């Protein structure tokens, strides 16, 4: 196993990192570092002799977090920012139809289940969004944050049926 990153390298975390119970002083499941945050490799080690783990210092959060290699990319690599993350509540800006039948009315609340496009060469970010009774593939520009999620401070066109 040869590490992809070295001491001092700038890296970006590709998905939100939550406490798996090993980060002291934070509850299990608490968000440690948000997707897109940039940090610097301070140490390189292994876990169970088959996984490379990097100790990354995220300056904005002032946290030293263990990250697996597949969770990181070079800080200067192309990056696709996105507005929503897993479990965010969203509202449909437009009605969605499948086979000519409206299945989700504009203004209907849904929840992000998965992000499908993290590749900058492929264009727009799209999501799996769970609406009552259906999961649809929806482009980011057809969604807005759920007003109820914004009010409480919670994270908050065409579609293909999933």
TrEMBL record:
Give the UniProt keywords, A-Z: Nitrogen fixation
Q: One of this protein's Pfam families, by short name? A: NifZ
Spell out the family assignment given in the record's similarity comment. Answer: Belongs to the NifZ family.
Which domain of life does the UniProt lineage start with? Bacteria
Q: Which InterPro entries match?
A: Nitrogenase_MoFe_mat_NifZ
- What are its GO biological-process terms? nitrogen fixation
The protein, known as: Nitrogen fixation protein NifZ
